[in-house]
Amino acid sequence: MGSKLIRGTMILTLGTYISKILGLFYVIPFNALVGTSGVALYQYGYVPYTIFISIATAGIPMAVSKTISKYNALEEYAVSRRLFKSGLAIMLATGFMAFLILFMLAPTLAQLIIPADDLTSNVEDVTAVIRAVSFALIIVPFMSLIRGFFQGHGSMGPSAVSQVVEQIVRIAFLLLGAFIVLQILNGSIVFAVQLATFAAFVGAIGGLAVLFWYWIKRKPHLDALLAQDRGQVQISLSQMYKEIIVSAIPFIIVGIAIPLFQMVDTLTFNKTMASIGLAAQSEAQYAMLNFNSHKIVIIPVSIATAFSLTLVPLITNSFVNENHKDLRLQLNQTFQVLLFLTLPATVGIMILAEPMYSFFYGYNLDGAEILLAYAPVALLFALFSVTAAILQGINRQKFTVFNLLVGLLIKMLLNIPLIEAYQAYGMIYATAIGFGVAIILNLIIIRTYAFYRYRLVFRRSLLILIFNGIMGVVVYFSYKLFALFIPVENQLTALILILLCAAIGGIVYFYLSLKSKLAFLLFPEQMQSLKRKLGIS
User: Fold this and answer.
1) What is the pLDDT of residues 263-320, one digit of tens each?
2) How far is it, in rounded angstroms, from Cα 83 to Cα 394?
3) Could you tell me the pTM of the whole model?
4) Residue 69 lies in a domain
5) Residue from 293, 304, 337, 259 nearest 442 by CA
6) What is the pLDDT of residue 116?
7) Which of 65, 257, 462, 502 sits CB 3.0–4.6 Å from 152 for a disulfide?
């Protein structure tokens, strides 16, 4: 079971990880081109777009993948094909509707985001940026359903490759467009940012082209399957879509959890900062947190996203078959591996916040301090993603919705008073409290309905915490030593500092994991393979 979980995670996460890494490193030249005010303007458009794209797809591609897989297992390939064709039409319709709604709502959203005249951006600028990014809504839902179709046939390659190509095309257009506007045409930052957000549409065309190529290449095989159709299941499209919608709701809720919290920040931060006389600092702090720091912090969360995708079918199978032993093993390993991988990344970001921020965005002590404060929230994002997936697996998805809404309500209630007290840090504290409450509620539901006890996970978590504490101390003193003669203010030397300290931390953590046998318990197959390669008996 363990190796299957890890193997599935690696397959599903490869495209996502490459895409995330590309999405992290483009911010270095982009930030240099448009500056902090341009980055803030970009994020004003992207946060509502992220929510709308989740609503437009409504988790249906993932649910369609699950449904197609189910009917393919029954050799009812005609049902799968009929579902796919009707799904494409629905995705085109919902995508176009989402585009129209966001395009028309842009002025209203802009007025909520920009409440004061003394901010760098104005309502017209934000309206233009939101409208530029809204065009991607026409294509992305249609494209994501095709990815779901391939995944339903057990083929992850088309999704992974199209995801990477989409990101490459988007980033290339984004950077080239911004460079031409600002450096060659001497145009405005607003127009450069408009092109940067419109790049989502251009990237989607690139991803869609890859999927069409895979469709042409694999159509003979898919048609051969269709010829083997048993034709024994008669089910209407309305029945199938009812099943799909029920499956889709938890996916959309989990998918928009972080953007919803960010949207609360987007709608309240500038207004609150203006009300306490700090409008001049508002957009810079917003960009430092919700774009710059978030780009770095979200990377460790990708592993949790991959786990959540892999978990649902495994846990569902164990739960439905009342195989409580396998279910406990799956939950034990999931929580442990999640903490084992996410916690050291979080600790590393906290200790190396200054050189990390300096490398990606140029030296800025305020930005580094915000990154340091925000880094622990990565662990909460990861835990929410995985616990929500577990609730889906044990058929308690309604609690996912309720618990997230409770956490979001707490965020909404606390955000303004905490911003008034702590500025950008107030957004971090409100997010941490909101997600923390949602996670605790998720854990209680898992304990109740899966009859699961956290004793082993608690003991192993203490061990992992101790290892991270030891690693953290070594990395901290290594960083302080190296920083005496390697300047942190320069981007290149900041990268050298990061690589040196990360290597030392990785060696210490790996050594402790080997000596304690923890690595062998969590990754038995991988560690045995490593021993064979090293010639260790």
Assistant:
1) 999 999 999 998 998 888 898 999 999 989 998 998 888 766 665 555 556 676 677 6
2) 26
3) 0.83
4) yes
5) 304
6) 61
7) 65
Give yes or no: residues 308 and 447 share one domain.
Answer: yes
**Alpha carbons 243 and 68: distance in angstroms, whole number:** 12
Least Cα distance to 393 among 326, 338, 460, 457 occurs for 326
Distance between CA atoms of 81 and 149, rounded to whole angstroms? Answer: 9
Cβ neighbours for 514, distance < 8 A, ≥ 6 positions apart: 520
Scanning 300-323, the segments in alpha helix (DSSP H) are 301-320
Spatial separation of the C-alpha atoms in residues 199 and 421, rounded to whole Å = 37
**Containing structural domain, residue 62:** 12-246
pLDDT at 137: 92
Q: What is the separation of C-alpha 373 from the centre of its chain, rounded to a whole number of angstroms?
A: 19
Number of domains in the chain: 2
Please provide the distance, in angstroms rounded to a whole number, between the alpha carbons at the two ends of the chain.
24
Average pLDDT per 10 consecutive residues for the chain, totaling 537 residues:
49 67 83 88 89 72 72 75 81 89 93 74 90 92 84 75 90 94 91 93 94 89 76 71 72 81 92 89 90 88 63 66 77 84 93 94 93 95 87 81 94 96 95 96 90 85 94 96 92 94 95 87 72 66
Residue whose entry in the numeric block shows the structure tokens 């590309």: 22
Same domain, 236 and 271: no
Q: Which residues contact 278 (CB under 8 A, 6 or more apart)?
A: 423
Distance of CA 78 to the CA centre of its chain: 34
Say how far apart CA 139 and CA 203 lie, in whole Å.
Answer: 10
Q: Of 410, 440, 463, at which residue does a domain stop?
A: 463
Alpha-carbon span 308 to 324, nearest angstrom: 19
| Tokens 């409450």 -> residue | 437
Domain shared by 301 and 336, yes or no? yes
| Contact (CB, 8 A) for 155 and 68 | no
Among 463, 488, 523, identify where a domain stops. Answer: 463
